[in-house]
């Protein structure tokens, strides 16, 4: 399963987590989380947490992401762990370590995959997981 934007929020709430309903009001920040077009360019960076599937996939401590959301994870759902955090402390990616592939990202790789290798890597890993041909 791969959740994107509302998908990360939905998965987290299904796991018993909570959301900031309006991050502009509940988690004010200088970080742009609701960017203007074009949506395939980066809006901010995220820190990739070590020893997570994203750190293995990207081999990097930080990546640039696009951003178009007004809600975000407040409290994590049961069984989920963070994989990436924005500079203002919002959770930007989660996974379930006890599942083959249950990942979710707050950004929009579907809008940036043509320009961004990291976005393509997320989809490649998802497809590999679905086909059973992943190396890890």
Report on the structure:
- The chain is α+β, with helices and mostly antiparallel strands.
- 28% of the residues lie in helices and 24% in strands.
- β6 and β7 form a beta hairpin.
Short synopsis of the structure:
With 136 residues, the chain is of the alpha+beta class. It is built from five helices and eight strands; from the N terminus they run E-H-E-H-E-H-E-E-E-E-E-H-H. The mean pLDDT is 96.
Q: How would you summarize the topology of this molecule?
A:
Layout: E1 2-4, H1 6-14, E2 18-20, H2 23-26, E3 44-48, H3 53-58, E4 62-65, E5 72-75, E6 81-85, E7 91-95, E8 103-105, H4 109-112, H5 117-131
Output the CATH homologous superfamily.
Class I glutamine amidotransferase (GATase) domain
The best one-word shape is globular
CATH class category name: Alpha Beta
List the secondary-structure elements in sequence, H or E. Answer: EHEHEHEEEEEHH
Structural class: alpha+beta
The CATH architecture:
3-Layer(aba) Sandwich
């Amino acid at each position: 399963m791969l959740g994107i934007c509302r998908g990360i929020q939905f998965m987290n709430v299904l796991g018993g987590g909570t959301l900031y309903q309006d991050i502009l009001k509940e988690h004010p920040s200088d970080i742009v989380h609701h960017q203007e077009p074009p949506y395939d360019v980066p809006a901010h960076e995220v820190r990739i947490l070590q020893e997570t599937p994203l750190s293995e996939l990207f081999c990097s401590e930080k990546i640039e992401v696009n951003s178009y959301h007004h809600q975000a994870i407040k409290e994590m759902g049961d069984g989920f762990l963070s994989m990436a955090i924005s500079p203002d402390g919002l959770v930007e990616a989660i996974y379930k370590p006890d599942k083959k592939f249950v990942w979710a990202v707050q950004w929009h790789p579907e809008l940036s995959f043509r320009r961004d290798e990291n976005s393509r890597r997320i989809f490649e890993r998802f497809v590999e997981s679905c086909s059973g041909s992943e190396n890890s």
